[in-house]
Amino acid sequence: MSHSPDDPRYPIRKPDAEWRAQLSPTEYAIARQASTERAFTGQFWDHWEKGTYRCVGCGETLFESGTKFDAGCGWPSYWQAVDDGRIERIVDRTHGMVRTEVRCAKCGSHLGHVFDDGPQPTGERFCINSAAIHFAADPSP
């Protein structure tokens, strides 16, 4: 996967050295190199606090806790993004399969994949790496 700092698709572009300085080694491997954390190991797979989930690369709000559900897959799963324009979908033909990769549309960070086996009303399951997102708690009680 290419994440050139000059890629015009993304409004936020940084040199690789800046990404490495900003992100932990695990966050960098996942967000910038499309790695994947092991199932049931990320900090948000079993996290149910109210709030929003934001891109680790740029802080863009991507998912809300109200759309999170237990898919049993070991990764945080959501049936809808906050706004389709904040997510980029790319055909991923790696590992001998065809999937739809999900990236942050603002900075190009790899988030995970989206599948068509989620609950209604969308029928989608955004399977997202915990290391690709940060959580912001809802300030209301």
Characterization of the model:
This protein is mostly beta strands and 141 residues long. The protein has one domain (16-137): Peptide methionine sulfoxide reductase (Metal Binding Protein, Guanine Nucleotide Exchange Factor, Chain A, Beta Complex). It is built from 2 helices and 9 strands, in the order ααβββββββββ. It has a 6-stranded antiparallel beta sheet with strand order 3-4-8-7-6-5, with no helix packed on it. β3 and β4 form a beta hairpin. The longest helix is centred in the first third of the chain and has 7 residues, at 16-22. The radius of gyration is 14 Å and the shape is globular. The chain starts with 15 loop residues before the first helix and ends with a strand.
Architecture blueprint of SSEs:
Layout: H1 16-22, H2 25-31, E1 51-55, E2 61-64, E3 68-69, E4 77-78, E5 87-92, E6 99-104, E7 110-115, E8 125-128, E9 133-137
Antiparallel strand pairs: 1-2, 1-9, 3-4, 4-8, 5-6, 6-7, 7-8
What strand order characterises the main sheet?
3-4-8-7-6-5
CATH T-level topology:
Metal Binding Protein, Guanine Nucleotide Exchange Factor, Chain A
Distance between the termini: 41 Å
What is the overall number of helices? 2
Tell me how many strands there are. 9
- The CATH top-level class label: Mainly Beta
- What are the segments in which pLDDT stays under 50 over at least 5 consecutive residues? none
Structural class: mainly beta
According to CATH, the homologous superfamily is Peptide methionine sulfoxide reductase
Percent in helix = under 10%
Average pLDDT level: 93
Gyration radius over CA:
14 Å
Q: From the 3D coordinates, which CATH architecture would you assign?
A: Beta Complex
